[in-house]
Structures are given as C-alpha cells and as structure tokens.
C-alpha cells in the first residue's frame, strides 16, 4: 500500500513504530513464507512438548533440524525465540475513534492488555481535545463491548453532550 494521500507514510510508520525504510523494504511473499515456517516450527514444538513437557529447547532444535533439515529452514536463534515465546503470548488492544464523515482517526491509544476502559478513555480524550471549544453535535457509535458500555465511558459522553449509539447485535457496522 503506497501513500494514498489520506495519511502520510511517515505518520503511519511512526504510529506503529517502524521506519519508512522498513516499510518500503517489506516483502509480502518473504514475510508470508517466514510466518509459515514459524507456524510450522511452533506446531512442531507444541507436538513435542505435549509428549514431553520438560524437554529442553536445544534438544527440540536438534530434533527439528534432524527431522526437517533444509525443508523448513529456520535459524537456531529464531527457533529459540519461538520456544521462549511459546507460553508467553503478548496481546494488546488498540482503541481508535474514527470520524465517520472524514474517515480520519481522531483518537487512538494502544498497548492495553485488557478490555478495561483505560485505552478507550485515552482515545476518547484525544478525540475530544480536537473539538475543544467547538460547538458540534456528535454521535458515538460502537458495539456493546464492556469497555464502551462502562459507566465511566458512557458518563463522559453524557457530560459532553455526545449521543451514545450501540448496536443490538454486537456488530459495530450494524446500523452505524
């Protein structure tokens, strides 16, 4: 995806924490092949660990290399990082507020490990800062996620005169 004119590549790269050089050097085919090899290695690790939970990483690496050799190439250090990350999945939520008219992201916050209201509130504060002092009528539409239905989140909307709209089905695109 090249620069579409809506958002500059530099801004998007800063948002996700990568350099412009990394963006332009990214190769989809290589990335997909690497991801497939890593998924294959992870499945192999899971299979071995399901039979022998206490087996060491070096032993698994040697078994993997002996069984597959160059058919599914993955370097030892990367294999070790996959083993290290085997039980430590890091998941974070990204909260964004999108202006439906301009399709511009007007508020965002990332890094939240749970569905609590911290990230959505930070995104909301960022969006509200942009309209400070302006007389606007707003509607906030979302699904019925616990973070959007929380008392603090809804009360903030009510205090600011923002109409709250939530789906009945849980699909945020429903009746937006």
Into how many domains do the coordinates divide? 2
| Total helical segments | 8
- Which structural class do you get from the secondary structure elements? alpha+beta
Major sheet strand order? 1-2
Q: Give the topology string: H per helix, E per strand.
A: HHHHHEEHEHHE
Major sheet: size, sense and barrel closure?
Answer: 2 strands, antiparallel
Question: What global shape is seen?
Answer: elongated
Number of strands: 4
How would you sum up this structure, described in words?
The chain starts with 8 loop residues before the first helix and ends in a 10-residue tail after the last strand. It is elongated. The mean pLDDT is 83. The chain has a two-stranded antiparallel sheet. A two-stranded parallel ribbon has the order 3-4. It has 176 residues and is of the alpha+beta class. The chain folds into 2 domains: 76 residues, no CATH class; 74 residues, no CATH class.
């Amino acid at each position: 995806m090249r620069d579409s004119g809506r958002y500059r590549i530099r801004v998007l790269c800063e948002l996700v924490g990568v350099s412009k050089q990394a963006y332009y050097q990214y190769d989809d085919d290589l990335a997909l092949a690497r991801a497939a090899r890593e998924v294959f290695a992870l499945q192999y690790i899971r299979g071995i660990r399901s039979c022998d939970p206490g087996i060491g990483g070096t032993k698994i690496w040697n078994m993997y290399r002996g069984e597959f050799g160059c058919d599914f190439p993955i370097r030892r250090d990367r294999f070790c990082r996959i083993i290290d990350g085997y039980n430590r999945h890091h998941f974070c939520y990204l909260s964004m507020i999108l202006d439906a008219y301009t399709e511009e992201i007007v508020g965002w916050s990332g890094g939240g490990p749970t569905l609590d209201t911290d990230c959505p509130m930070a995104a909301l504060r960022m969006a509200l800062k942009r309209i400070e002092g302006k007389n606007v009528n707003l509607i906030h539409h979302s699904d019925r996620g616990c973070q959007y239905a929380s008392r603090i989140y809804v009360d903030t909307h009510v205090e600011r005169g923002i109409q709250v709209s939530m789906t009945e089905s849980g699909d945020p695109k429903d009746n937006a």
